[in-house]
Amino acid sequence: MVVACLAATLSxxxxxCAGKPPVPPKAFQVAEVAKNQANVSxxxxxxxxxxxxxxxxxxxxxxxxxxxxxxxxxxxxxANSVPISYKPLHYEEGKNSIQLCTNxxxxxxxxxxxxxxxxxxxxxIHTTNQTTKVTEIPPGGTLYDDYLFENPVVEAENLVxxxxxxxxxxxxKTYRFFVxxxxxxxxxxxxxxxNEISTIDGLSVKITQVSKEYAELxxxxxxxxxKYPYAYTKEPILVIHMTITNTSGQALxxxxxxxxxxxxxxxxxxxxxxxxxxxxxxxxxxGKGQVMNKVTINPGESINDVYFFETPGSDQDLVFNIxxxxxxxxxxxxxxxxxxxxxxEEPDLKPYLHANDNKADDKAQAEEAEANxxxxxxxxxxxxxxxxxxxxxxxxxx
Length: 398
Fold this sequence. Notes:
The chain has three domains: 4-185, Immunoglobulin-like (Sandwich); 197-352, Immunoglobulin-like (Sandwich), CATH 2.60.40.1240; 358-388. It is built from two helices and 26 strands. It has helices at residues 350-353, 357-397; strands spanning 10-13, 32-33, 38-48, 52-53, 69-78, 84-86, 99-102, 113-114, 116-119, 126-127, 135-137, 142-149, 158-164, 174-180, 184-185, 197-200, 203-213, 217-219, 237-246, 252-254, 265-269, 285-287, 295-297, 302-309, 316-323, 332-339. The strands form nine sheets. Strands 2, 3, 5, 12 and 15 form a five-stranded mixed sheet that branches. A four-stranded antiparallel sheet has the order 8-7-13-14, with no helix packed on it. A four-stranded antiparallel sheet has the order 16-17-19-24, with no helix packed on it. Residues 1-9 have low confidence and may be disordered.
């Protein structure tokens, strides 16, 4: 069951699965074909501990997402030549959402209903493997989405999943599928360490350095002049360096949100407590090496990025979680990283103290040259006037 700290945002809604199905359910992982050629099937039935993000896709603290739930993984494949719209039903309950039931009793038609784990739409909380908005599936594309239920503890060879056809625009139908009577137990992947690669759907992340340092900064707008340019942060901060590599066969977008109020990352102590504050810079400055805007990572391409946090007060191991949505993939990247609270040497600011002096000298020289040019033009003009006057005098004498 989901832990009590999520009780305010999660509810276990009863579902109505009464009555015998008019047609036999499809076998597990066998597709039902909609009128628009959407192939709908149940790809997996698992018992696991999911990761959650909030409405802004900010990664939540692990203890807020603890608790095993049964996951029905829906698979939608678009076999049509035009896009298909997928309408998720995570905030719906009962017959308006996906349902999980036992087979009907052959004698009286009774069946057991398993409660769905639903969310209040106002919170926006969802797992990293859920789609919460109407999504277009391109021709030939495939979409996966997870629906959560209480653990169905029951002696049965098969269970039944009911899927409203309106999820892909087939509003007059309800699809029925068999799933195994017991969900497959799936343990969350163990966190990776420093310089270890974590890969999800062909997008790999490696943390290459964790250090307390005076982070070097640079101007966001390279053409602007600053009288006193800032070269480093005023105080040491925690800096996490990472390498991101696209090993998939398609381009993926990466959106770090370094200057946004929220981002899909969270850093905390392995012992719990408050998460460490992420340090975001203003609109003028950014950390040297930080990816400023949303970028595309092509297949086979690697990029580097840097994240800033407040510094812990002592040596310790840190939990660093990154929601896959910022890389356009599902799931959560997990790391356990060593931190040493060693005070770094102060940076050498001398090269920056007179960074704009040459610019000022160049400007002064340019202004002087312009003034000299103007003087020269004035001198030439005066000479021409004098020649003209002499010519007039000569003519008058003649």
